[in-house]
Amino acid sequence: MNYQELVDVYIRLDSTTKRLEKTEIIANFFKTIEDDSLYDICLLILGGVFPAWSDKELGIGDKLLIQAISKVVGISKISVEEEINAQGDIGIACEKLFSKKQQTTFFLKPLTVNFVFSSLQKLADISGNNSTNKKISIITELLSLASPSEAKYISRTIIEVLRIGVGEGIVRDAISQAFNVDKKITERSHMLTNDLGLVADVAKKEGENGLKKLTLTPGKPVKPMLAQLSSGIKESIKEMGKAICETKYDGIRLQIHRKNNEIAIFTRRLENITLAMPEIVKLIEECLPHFDFIVEGEVIATKNGKPISFQNILHRVKRKYNIEEAIENVPLKIFLFDVLFYKKPMIDEPLIERRNLLEDIVDLSNDDINLSKKIIGTCENIPEIESLFEESINENHEGIMIKDSKEPYIPGLRGKKMLKFKAEPETLDVVVVGGTRGLGKRGDFIGSYLVALKDENDELKTIAHVATGLDDETLEYLTSKMKEYEISQKDNKIFVKPKIILEIAYSEIVNSPEYEIGYSLRFPVVKSVRKDKGLDDIDTIERLKSMYKE
Ligand code: AMP
């Protein structure tokens, strides 16, 4: 299929904000695909070229793209930058510049979806000597064959900001609609495989029966099941009947996979951090000497055997060098709390069965590996659960988790079956979309950050500017990241790709026309930079509204 056909669909998707219309457009388009490009198209519509389980990234900065555009259009890099700043969007700027240039090549050889897809995939694998030139030459080749509208969407895809308002939910519904399969089955196979391209392919070729056969595979991470806030221990236990109550540790969540002899460790954002945590790999080899499993737990940093803030662990996750030194300076402890796969998928088993299995299979003779501390909670032993909470706070942990003992594990779900009860007031996880250069002492830094939440279509909507809670070190870090993720600049304002996640505390949620969302936050303060979280983890308007009501 020609890439231009996909671009025409992008344009139609761009022209409506209605979820149902977008779904219909995609479903109808899927039905027309006759060749083998459905997989590629699914991922391209989601703005990427790798399935969600893969941690591969294109990793192309604006500077490189600008260099390629300037080469293809035949103008200086400065002129390209000026056009981008004038348009406020690299895609629109590209389209404008391409429509002015003398078209020569693109009529000769139309771009196909497969060619665009495989060229972009190649970009992620280029490293080492001369890699910049190799990347520029791939992008230049692609752009020199592109029409103005194709150039618009290729450039946006390259910098990973497609902006057509299509999230996974819409593509999933479109697959169900196009191939006439039950939405629940599509949803489940998506959760288990984390690969919508594969789901679409199987739905098309094998229908519901094929989808039902898709399952978890050790080695491919799945989205973790997420927690909602408990409104109180008693209420939550009453609702669940019988719950597993556990200490809530303040670290980062790990999903640990073993397939044959290979151990892989993933974060909740599905990043593979195996190489950064060799001591955890060793621990797992020693204490879980079995083949083929997926277990989950929280890893925490310690000092003199006591837990310390989770920020200390983030340094470990990102570390590529001097790992031995880090292992000594920041010792880690892991607390396992779930098993998703053990010789076969376990997620459909009730939590209590999974926990029993975990207790059977882990050898706890090494102090650095534990199971989360747990008690079975019912209406009869509320004081015991309250003591677990107090004890956990006194030991520097965050609070407790309250989990329905009868429930299966549902990847990616933030439901009522797994709750958290914390001592601190609730915060919001937001993504930075822009910023304003500081004044006076902060003149060298981006001093104020424009942050956003997700709406029901996964589109980002701004909610506040936050400028407090930032020490010099954090400001320096954030400013450098803002430069790395820059999309455009105007006066003292900068707009960036949605990559930086902040945890924000605030005094109150108020109605406000000032921001896209219709609400704003009074006295927002940055509590932490959540390097362990991604766009999937940010809060939604729905949650904000329910917090506003409360
Ligand atoms: P939050 O990040 O505030 O949404 O809280 C949920 C997170 O708590 C999970 O994603 C885990 O990273 C973490 N956590 C800590 N201890 C546990 C536990 N015992 N069971 C489940 N999650 C836990």
Q: How would you describe this structure to a colleague?
A:
41% of the residues lie in helices and 23% in strands. β3 (252-259) and β4 (262-266) form a beta hairpin. α4 packs across α5, α6 (90-100) packs antiparallel against α9 and α7 packs antiparallel against α8 (131-144). The termini are far apart. The structure holds adenosine monophosphate. Adenosine monophosphate is lined by residues 224, 227, 246-249, 253, 268, 298, 337, 372, 401, 420.
Task: Produce a short descriptive summary.
The protein has 20 helices and 21 strands.
Which features would summarize this protein structure in a list?
single chain, 550 residues, alpha+beta, DNA ligase i, domain 1, D-amino Acid Aminotransferase, Chain A, domain 1, OB fold (Dihydrolipoamide Acetyltransferase, E2P), 3 domains, 7-stranded antiparallel sheet, 21 strands, 23% strand, globular, binds adenosine monophosphate
Kindly report how far apart the N and C termini lie. 51 Å
Each distinct ligand: adenosine monophosphate
The quaternary organization reads as single chain
Contiguous uncertain segments of 5+ residues: none
The share of residues in extended strands comes to 15-25%
Number of β-strand runs: 21
The CATH superfamily of the largest domain appears as DNA ligase/mRNA capping enzyme
Please write the CATH class name of the largest domain.
Alpha Beta
Number of separate domains: 3
> What is the C-alpha radius of gyration, as a whole number of Å?
24 Å
User: Mean pLDDT across all residues, rounded?
Assistant: 92
| Major sheet characteristics | 7 strands, mixed
Question: Would you tell me the structural class of the helices and strands?
Answer: alpha+beta
CATH topology of the largest domain: D-amino Acid Aminotransferase, Chain A, domain 1
Shape: globular
Question: What is the CATH-assigned architecture of the largest domain?
Answer: 2-Layer Sandwich
Number of helical regions: 20
Helix content: 40-55%
